[in-house]
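Limitations

Structures in this collection are predictions, not experimental determinations, and the ligand pose is part of the prediction. Treat each record accordingly. The example that follows, with KG4 as the small molecule, is included so readers can see exactly what is and is not provided: the inputs are given verbatim, and the output is the predicted complex.
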Amino acid sequence: MVLGIETSCDETGVGLVRDGVVLGQAVASSMDEHARFGGVVPEIAARAHLHSVTPVVRAALDDAGLTLADVGAVAVTAGPGLATALQVGVAAAKAYAVALDVPLYGVHHLAGHVAAATLDGEPLPNPSVVLIVSGGHTSLLYVRDLAVDPIEHLGDSVDDAAGECFDKAARVLGLPYPGGPNVDRAARDGDARAVRFPRPMTGPRDDPFGFSFSGLKTAAARWVEGERRAGRDPNVADAAASLQEAIADVLTRKAVAACRARGVATLVVVGGVAANSRVRAMAEERCAEAGITLRVPPLRLCTDNGAMTAAVGDLLIRAGRPPASLDLTIDPSAPL
Ligand code: KG4
Ligand code: ZN
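Predicted complex:
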């Protein structure tokens, strides 16, 4: 059984995985402590991880009805992420590995997000197209065997990630941090056709699998200004629904096009933004229309968690990959 520890941002996540199955998990978040700053403060996140990591390991073991004696390997997110936050997880993981005399595996955070889609007990079909949409990344990937083959980038965002766009636009609309879930919530009462937001990078001469989201934040700010200038109170629900519609439209349109272009029958959508209700619904509709099988992890496994980290460790072990040494270092800007 693999103990997975994830501390790359503001969630202290611990998960226990054996043979591709989650046995237990627990999470603590410092989100509330960052709210008054409008974004994650690395020093606060790191201190919170230090405070939480041991109790969260214990909570995950309790959740599974297991003890430390059942741990056969430790996997930890080594990057990308906030340096001081990663440092706490890696130090804790090394301590557990030494104390329990078990192997240690360093895990790439984005590989973790992708592996979350295997935790329903089914490996990913080879090949799959993966749309990874988080606070720091928006990429379309061509994935074969996650534990063995290199991942091929089909396209990335040239500026902001989709989650960053949700978070920044939320601020512009006066919605509280964390932006993404609050836009999702506000959008429930809004009309998605009320505001005509652009669909960036969807022109005939644009990179078909590239993304650009910084313009949408600007468009949201301009719309708020325009409404105020016209003497109207901005209808935040309508703007949230329209913005969410624009993001979901671009993401799912390009993801389905990538599957078609590469002749791939399975689309996997992972990362925090895969928790968005409209992204999930639109991906379902468009995949059904195109005859593509859609794999999206359950909500709890979309945002950062420890089970996804353990899942990569589990895949590496089953692929016979060697463990890391105790010299394992963090890599805050690790390329995929
Ligand atoms: O994957 P994740 O938990 O952390 C990173 O690796 O970045 O993703 C966090 C991002 C944030 O930008 C957050 O606002 C966004 O995912 N997010 C959402 C939703 N839940 C989380 N965005 C839109 N709708 C949601 N329901
Ligand atoms: Zn993440």
